[in-house]
Amino acid sequence: MNKIIIFLLLSSSFLFGYKVEIDAQKVTADDNKGVTTFTGNVTIKRGQDIMKADNIVVYVNKNKDVEKFQAKGNASIYIVSTNGNIFKGESGEFVYWPLKQIFKLSGNAIVEDMTNKRKLIGDEIVFDEKTKKANVTGKESKPVKVIFNVADKKK
Question: What is the largest CA-CA distance in the chain?
Fold first, then answer.
């Protein structure tokens, strides 16, 4: 397994000032297009944050800022937010735009807020970290599901 350690000091919150470590079985890069493809049991670690998938493609702009991570096949995330909340998610595909701080999970998507004990399930989940807004869509055959606890005030 190829092990690549990349030191990126980029402007995005996902990567700013942190060492990024990427494990994959194969890596192909095209600097002219700003595209690097990691294939086979891919794991990206940054601090406590972890992304995993069968394949992850990283897109960078002319300034070498990461514009997009696109994970396909058994995609999962483990994110510790800036306020300390812990989120776990899984889906068929995961896209993260670090400069915009937007996450999109699609294909049997599940996101669990481990800190606040909440769970979102749908075909697609889009979360904007800046505005703290989420949009969850389901299918006619499989609607959106939201799970959370309610405190009993009758005690």
Answer: 65
Q: What is the DSSP string of 85-139?
A: -EEEEEEEEEEEETTTTEEEEEEEEEEEETTTTEEEEEEEEEEETTTTEEEEE-B
Domains within the chain, CATH numbers bracketed: 2-147 (2.60.450.10)
Instruction: Output the six-digit token pair for 81.
Output: 């937010």
User: What is the distance between the alpha carbons of residues 40 and 147, in angstroms, rounded to a whole number?
Assistant: 33
Q: Are 85 and 113 in contact (CB under 8 A)?
A: yes
**Burial call 88-98: b when 16+ CB within 10 Å, e when fewer:** ebbbbbbbbbb
The single residue listed with the structure tokens 């995005």 is: 12
Return d(Cα 138, Cα 43) in angstroms, integer: 28
Token pair in block for residue 16: 């700013």
Per residue in 74-132, pLDDT (tens digit) is 999 998 877 788 989 999 999 999 888 899 999 999 999 898 899 999 999 998 888 88
